[in-house]
Amino acid sequence: MDELIFFINRVLISGTVLGSIYALGAIGVTLIFGILRFAHFAHGDMMTMGAFIAFVLATALAAMGVVLPLPLGFIVLPVAMVITAVIALGIDKGFYAPLRARGAKPVTLLIASIGVTLMIQGLVRLIFGSGTQSIYVGQPKEIFRLDMSWAGGSRPISITEPQLLMFIVTALLVVALHLFLTRSRLGKAMRAMADNAALAQVSGINTALVVRVTWVIAGSLACVAGTMLALDVALMPDLAFNIVLPIFAAAIVGGLGHAYGAIVGGFLIAFAETLAVFNWTAVLRPLNGVLPEAMQLPANLALVPTEYKLTVAFVILVITLLVRPTGIFKGAST
Amino acid sequence: MALIELKHVVGGYGGAPILNGVNMAIDKSDIGVIVGPNGAGKSTTLKAIFGLLKVTGGTIDFGGENIANSLPDKLVPKGLSFVPQEKNVFTSMSVEENLEMGAFTRTDDFSDTMDWVYAMFPVLAEKRRQPAGELSGGQRQMVAMGRALMSKPSLLMLDEPSAGLSPRYVIEIFETIQRVNQEGVGILMVEQNARQALAFASKGFVLAGGQNRYTGTGAELIADPEVAKSFLGG
Ligand SMILES: Nc1ncnc2c1ncn2[C@@H]1O[C@H](COP(=O)(O)OP(=O)(O)OP(=O)(O)O)[C@@H](O)[C@H]1O
Ligand SMILES: [Mg+2]
Asked: Residues in domain ABC transporter (chain B) (predicted)?
């Protein structure tokens, strides 16, 4: 029983946490690609930026003496999302829109977004320093423990408060996005533009408005993902830059331009990573009792050492590109 | 006054002009058919009207104003619709969503118009939930026309609506175009099935080298031995 609990804690919960973050990031990447046809390399840093905005707001609230039952970093999320969305619109207007107006190639936009990455990282370091911050401003991280003794487990299933909040928020956002894309006029126009931009223009769809909506969605989801990551781990200037590769892998594996694909891709990559670094001895240990002496399980039976976790996303990406370049769902990249 | 009137339109894609003075006038009751050899500038003429390329000279009067270089999101609400030759449906979206996109610029209730389109293309009503990419070529062409009609245009422009269709479907799509026209929508279309299209055209234009070579009723052009010899394959 304890082995199962260990598996739930280490794989199921961790995988879902990571999957939520990847999915929220990858949705932004995939929508931007679908609408604007370029790989937005600075997306990880947009996540970091969102997290720092939440951090500033939470610190301000704490300084005003506000005490609430939920983490302040979570409470300020709606405001932080709006601010990040506005900054995302500003970045587009300042850096990407002028290039598009001149008919720049996607690779030029990609390079511009690398510039934006450096700029955001520089600014964050300039303002907040390069150290690690806690978004908890004085509050302890609450941990829910689900007692499993009734099932013969000696350890509880444990989930932290931010993790639980993240599951709820991710689920709500995914449902909201689904409703937006399938029910609303603007959401459908967004799908139309990702499907066939020239025809969207011919239909009289206000493509500039669709572009703005794309940045608002991508920016606000990046803020949620970044803040959640900061709540789950810690806040630092290269917080999300480190997970840009798995996020892009998720978007590509799911099929570029395909929002649901990004969600599936996000969870797929996250679980693949989690399972790959999971120490299988922990669950298979009981086998030692029946296995002969010479075949005892080693102390660590992980497929991939933790420090090479990133290679998992990379390998999945390469396999996808070789076997099914359009992704699980037929993406817009062709 | 004509519904749309092109006066000596000059334009192109940035380099040398492709259109070197195109003249056309279409009334609400008209079916105008543009024919001509490959590269004559037929598609370019429709794109120039629809603001998809730069017009550098001449005027395009529509609804009492010069619409040259206006963009589609301004033209569609004014009553202009365009069905491009290729990639003219949203393949990943359902038939009904395709039609909704045609009504994007409308803020009023467009369910009447959708019923009207479904009445015109009953097959589409059956397949309303199916992705447009899964339909046959002829059915896609209907989706494309339906999408363009959703804005209740006064002028519908079509670029080679019969391209790639089997002869049976060609007849069907031409009949539909005439029906749409009878319901009060002016038509301006480019056609490779020139003889067949000119047969029901009230206005015909032979374009070559970005200029009008012959203009007349469809019947006149078919009867003109010069036109028949050079442009209609004898
Ligand atoms: N997007 C473009 N950019 C630059 N030149 C173009 C473009 N599209 C067409 N042209 C050029 O404009 C000229 C006229 O093209 P157009 O498509 O209008 O011909 P068309 O009469 O429709 O011919 P077809 O019967 O082959 O469709 C051609 O010489 C073509 O090469
Ligand atoms: Mg053409």
From this structure: 4-234
